[in-house]
What does this fold into?
Amino acid sequence: MDDILLQIKDAVITRKKNEIEGLVKTAIEGGTDPNSIIEDSLIAAMDVVGQKFASSEIFVPEMLVSALTMKLGLEVVKPHLKTGEGRSRGTIIMGTVHGDLHDIGKNIVIMMLEGAGFKVVDMGVDLTVEKLIEQLEAIQPDVLGLSALLTTTMPEMERTIHVLSEKGLREKVKIMVGGAPVDQSFADRIGADGYGADATEAVQLARQLIAGAR
Ligand code: B1M
It folds into this structure.
């Protein structure tokens, strides 16, 4: 792997938040593929951070600073992902479910969806179904995207789909789900329309869901 990609990965793991923007700029200016910076450095670094947390080598405050460092890096990459497609391919509401504060994966998915020409309304983290219903009625999106990173918040996805069915809103929107603990069988079981393992799959899935609905 390129030295600069390793340096970016290391900066996230070791929480060098004052150095990350400069390193990512250097990589971009040197012609490194922005997708590679995300996949091979930034996401790869968070996997290492997760392992260190699981083995009690680091704790929540350190994990938080790594997350902040990663976000600073992502902001530098973001403008370089845009494809500048004119016409919107459809509207998507995205959020991390109630009780869950992890937003890095969701934000990467949003960046990729916007880059692919979708209009995305970001509902943030800790998204209650009540707040969601207000926005679904107001915006009437083609797709609702739900993210969860905790095994304890996965059931909130099922509850959200259940409440939308009760309110007569389920058939009006396609629902895709994702996040590290989620998989296809969980998505099938809770009645989602699709599951994306990563941002690239999420973009493909959104295209398929919207094409199928029109
Ligand atoms: Co937390 N955390 N965390 N954390 N955290 C995990 C998830 C954990 C696996 C760490 C570990 O133990 N190894 C563990 C969960 C264990 C479990 O559920 N069984 C955990 C825990 C326990 C916790 C706390 C409970 C810790 C505590 O307080 N004791 C706490 C919970 C807070 C809460 O949410 N209520 C907590 C807090 C935090 C921080 C706030 C410190 C921070 C989050 C900061 C932030 O997001 N703003 C944090 C972090 C950074 C992590 C790890 C290290 C990294 C997560 C991440 O950003 N990954 C994580 C360990 C790990 O994942 N390796 C961990 C990178 C990101 C790009 O990947 O989000 O999977 P991901 O997104 C991917 C795909 O999943 C997919 O595309 C993305 C791009 O490829 N995807 C979708 C995501 N959403 C999608 C939606 C789609 C489609 C695809 O369609 C809609």
The longest helix spans residues 34-54. The domain at 91-213 is CATH 3.40.50.280 (Rossmann fold).
